[in-house]
Specification:
The relative contact order is 0.07. This protein folds into four domains: 1-176, no CATH class; 180-260; 271-333, Orthogonal Bundle (Arc Repressor Mutant, subunit A), CATH 1.10.10; 340-398, Arc Repressor Mutant, subunit A. 50% of the residues lie in helices and 9% in strands. It is mainly alpha-helical.
């Protein structure tokens, strides 16, 4: 099930094509179908705004919105106090009083309960645990505004009766009553497992490898025993992914490949490692301008990559080979270093017999991204190559 909320999509929709059947009929599905039939839209920003306007006085509204960034930039208690001409402590008291009012007023609105049910259904599929960014994407889709994010977080923190903050270093949320205490056992198990991999793996490959381990199967049995609804059909791959997203020991890179969190192939810090991952991902030589663009698009971290920096690293790092004008490949792909003439010499030296022009061109193009004319021009250098009477070529050092 995928949930989308917002003005562009006009509410919540469930993707029945990807939803997995559950023995329990979805309560949320029934309620949402009813609400859609009545023309209601479930939007956290509108719901929070509605309850604030209903339950709070003017100054309380201002303070809550300013403090929590609802519809505007968030402000400190001191800044709000200066704006309103009251003390920092008085602002804190009013904010606390306002939140108490909202907690009592939430029972007036059906939408509040619907929002809770929507979050509950997402978290149930994820084993009761979700990293914050992943939760936002499951709820809103890939695109959502900061206002939507802050509104949903405000709801979870202060109005939800089903969801609470998860106790991890990474921001996350848990379904109250879910067996999230089993997280560490899974984290340790997977961490030990990924250390056996030579390179990061997809979550599907990782889960398939885990599924043959007795320890993992025993972990699943413990999870089932602790899960509050005994008739639930669990999507184990989805649960493992959700749990690992909150791990400190195991993590994924932007290509959704999983490995040890400290690995340079998961969290690359050096520019050379970022370049390596981009080329590895695309599996073909790329121009250094394109490599720079992709590094910034993938967002390995907050640092911006610049073309001169990337180009310098490509020149200095022995993992990369220049195969064309500004075009680089991974040396591990079999590309050799040197000019086009050097490549031709190597090809002819490794051949048992002289080669035709067409054979040389074909071989060079497997090593370099150049025009045929460049190869032909290199062959005209009589200091390096000799054209035999039958039209084939050889190196002078082979004669």
């Amino acid at each position: 099930m995928v949930l989308y909320v917002g003005t562009e999509r006009s509410g919540i929709f469930m993707d029945s094509a990807t939803a997995k059947p559950n023995k329990r009929e979805s309560i949320l599905g029934k309620v949402l179908d009813s609400k859609r039939a009545e023309g209601h839209v479930l939007n956290p920003t509108e719901i929070i705004d509605m309850i604030i306007n209903h339950a709070l006085e003017q100054r309380e509204r201002e303070i809550v919105r300013q403090r929590h960034g609802l519809g505007q930039a968030s402000m400190t208690l001191d800044a709000i106090g200066r704006r309103l001409g009251i003390t920092r402590e008085r602002v804190r008291q009013i904010a606390k009083q306002a939140l108490s009012k909202l907690g009592k007023a939430k029972r007036v609105f059906d939408e509040i309960h619907l929002l809770d049910l929507a979050l509950k259904e997402i978290l149930e599929k994820s084993g009761g645990l979700k990293e914050e960014t992943s939760l936002m994407k499951d709820f809103f889709g890939d695109k959502y505004t900061d206002e939507q994010r802050l509104s949903l977080l405000f709801f979870i923190k202060y109005l939800s009766e089903l969801v609470s903050k998860a106790s991890f270093k990474k921001p996350g949320w848990q379904l109250i009553g879910a067996p999230v205490d089993l997280h560490k056992a899974l984290e340790d198990m997977v961490h030990e497992h990924v250390q056996k991999f030579e390179s990061p793996q997809s979550i599907e490959v990782l889960h398939e490898a885990l599924s043959s381990e007795e320890a993992y199967l025993a972990w699943r049995e413990k999870f089932i025993e602790a899960w509050p609804h005994k008739d639930t059909e669990h999507d184990w791959l989805h649960i493992v992914r959700s749990y690992l997203q909150l791990s400190d020991k195991v993590d994924s890179n932007p290509f959704d490949e999983w490995g040890v969190a400290s690995s340079a192939m998961i969290k690359p810090r050096r520019m050379g490692d970022k370049i390596y991952l981009v080329l590895k991902r695309h599996k073909e030589p790329l121009h250094f301008n394109k490599i720079t663009e992709l590094i910034n698009d993938y967002g390995f971290d907050k640092r911006v990559a610049y073309r001169p920096t990337v180009h310098n690293e490509l020149i200095l790092d022995p993992r990369f080979v220049l195969v064309g004008r500004g075009i680089y490949a991974l040396k591990e792909w079999g590309y050799s270093e040197g000019t086009v003439s050097d490549v031709i010499k190597q090809i002819l030296s490794s051949s048992d017999q002289p080669m035709t022009r067409e054979e040389i061109i074909e071989s060079v193009l497997q090593e370099r991204v150049v025009k045929e004319g460049t190869i032909l021009l290199a062959l005209t250098n009589k200091k390096n190559f000799r054209r035999l009477p039958d039209g084939r070529y050889t190196c002078f050092n082979l004669i």
